[in-house]
Amino acid sequence: MNVIRTVSLRAAVLGSLLLAACSVGPTEEDINRALEDILASVNGEWTGSSTGTNPVTLAFTLSQAGNGAVTGSGTMKETNAVASVPITIAGSYQRPALTLTFSGMVYEGKTVEGSFQGNYTTVGGVGGSLQLTAPGYSKALPVLLQEK
């Protein structure tokens, strides 16, 4: 009885492997093409988050023109703030370089402008530094921006 069970188990495993080998799924080329399509544009919804003692979260939508100019709008909220604030975004995307300027930000009670530069080379997001500036004020926050 154990011999029959072992043979049946081996046959089932072999059959499963053959079916898996014959199944139709995306090829490596299909996957690479889909990833290239995602990275070709920054149009769509994005999120951002920083780390540190008073991290910020961003939620925004970007629109990219044919010449690479980028505009957008959304919200920003620092952890210690009561509410989020509306922000506007301007910049450019010349693959892979993404450059964004965030206006309307409020951080630690100061109205600041945020500047970001990074290379969008992976669907995992764009990491970099969000440089916050105002007259007499400058602070860099490590941030990860991700397309939804």
Question: Key terms for this structure?
Answer:
alpha+beta, Lipocalin, disordered N terminus, eight-stranded antiparallel β-barrel, 148 residues
User: What is the helix content?
Assistant: 10-25%
Biggest sheet features: 8 strands, antiparallel, barrel
Taken from the alpha-carbon principal axes, the silhouette is elongated
List the helices and strands in order.
Answer: HHEEEEEEEE
Total E-strand runs? 8
SS field, number of helical segments: 2
Proper CATH architecture of the largest domain? Beta Barrel
Kindly report the average pLDDT value. Answer: 86
Strand content: over 45%
Strand order, largest beta sheet: 1-2-3-4-5-6-7-8
Q: Structural class, please?
A: alpha+beta
The figure for the number of domains is 2
Determine the N-to-C terminus distance.
54 Å
Could you describe the 3D structure shown?
With 148 residues, the chain is an alpha+beta fold. The chain folds into two domains: 2-35; 42-147, Lipocalin (Beta Barrel), CATH 2.40.128. The N and C termini lie far apart (54 Å). It has two helices and eight strands; from the N terminus they run ααββββββββ. The radius of gyration is 23 Å and the shape is elongated. The protein has helices at 2-22, 28-39; strands at 44-50, 56-64, 69-78, 85-94, 97-107, 110-119, 126-134, 137-147.
In short:
With 148 residues, the chain is of the alpha+beta class. 22% of the residues lie in helices and 52% in strands.
How is the secondary structure organized here?
Layout: H1 2-22, H2 28-39, E1 44-50, E2 56-64, E3 69-78, E4 85-94, E5 97-107, E6 110-119, E7 126-134, E8 137-147
Antiparallel strand pairs: 1-2, 1-8, 2-3, 3-4, 4-5, 5-6, 6-7, 7-8
